[in-house]
Amino acid sequence: MSNFIKTKVCVVVASRANYGRIKYLLTAIKEHEQLELQLIVGASLLLDRYGKAVNIIKADGFIPDREIYYNLEGENLLTQAKSTGMGIIELSTAFEQLQPNFVVSVADRYETMATAIAATYLNIPLIHVQGGEVSGNIDDRVRHAITKLADFHFVSTEKSRDRVIRMGENENSVFNFGCPAMDVIQNADKSIDNTIMSKYGGVGSLVDWTKPYILMIQHPVTTSYGSGFSEVNETLKALLKFDSIQKIVLWPNSDAGGEDVSKGIRVFRERNMNRNFHFYKNFSAEDFIRVLSNAVCVVGNSSSFLREGSFLGVPAVVVGDRQNQREHGENVLFANYEDNDIHEKITLQIEHGKYNPSNIFGKGDAGKRIAALIKDLKPNLLKPITY
Prior knowledge:
Elements: E1 7-13, H1 16-31, E2 35-42, H2 54-59, E3 66-68, H3 77-98, E4 102-106, H4 110-121, E5 126-129, H5 138-149, E6 152-155, H6 158-166, E7 174-176, H7 181-187, H8 194-197, E8 203-204, E9 213-217, H9 228-240, E10 246-250, H10 258-271, E11 277-280, H11 285-294, E12 297-300, H12 308-312, E13 316-319, E14 332-335, H13 339-352, H14 366-374
Parallel strand pairs: 1-2, 1-4, 2-3, 4-5, 5-6, 6-7, 9-10, 9-12, 10-11, 12-13, 13-14
Antiparallel strand pairs: 8-11
Helix pairs in contact: 1-7, 1-14, 3-4, 4-5, 9-10, 9-13
């Protein structure tokens, strides 16, 4: 029996989207004989109004070492900044107690920034997943700032790897194994039917998952804070014109401006409850892939439309500028915040149908490859710049 000391890897998951993107890495770390998984779950994942996705995480067999509340009410610019500060305070305490060898942080949200700052000031080597990307909004600043704090980078595309290296990071610390979100797709049963989806309630018209539907996910855009109500209404007005097609609307995330978007959806819902719309808070990672994969078109501004959507070849209409600079496959058309433009692009995408799948974000084997490498990483906390 080997008595070697396992490498403790602490993964922080603080949004429903990031759980789906990191799930197979969590599994790979948990199953690796030389690694010990530590899991911190926090922020909106613990809140009922976002579907309390912590319950899905637990149902998947992951027991959090810590559950941390650090989302302030209000969903405005001030509460977003203060939530970041609260996250730094609470995560610092958790890291001090857990004493991990590495901390893993995902993507580009304010919770990710809190994770990166707390780990850095505690001299804990930081692993950043999904760095080096460009989307076109405040997330770029956060993502690139985390890159400069991180010790190791597991990027999702070759362009992302090149950007991280050009930011002065040692090329030997930057690895492109693809995005772990593709692992979910690669391993998921993508079939959908009414029995599978019956466990989700939601409100609105009765859904028949065997018939055509459009999926809508529209998040707030921090750089156009205050415009969320009008922006989401343009998309909803466009969807109203598709009377005979079911519309599935998923609740927005907790970024600043989220309450404006939520209010727009609530007001619309009260007036159009019986217009072939159904509204949901959340799906499991696997069931979200079912919903995404079988949609005749997806519309809004979720990065999943460009990442997972490209991998699946799902016709997508991306609205506004939240994702307008992100890499994507041929499945994407862009529309401005104007219902006629959105309607026209959705019509074109439905007429086109499925696109050829793209491997731009990987092949679905990232989780195991990342976990296998972590045990051999040798951090240098001085981290000199390379130019």
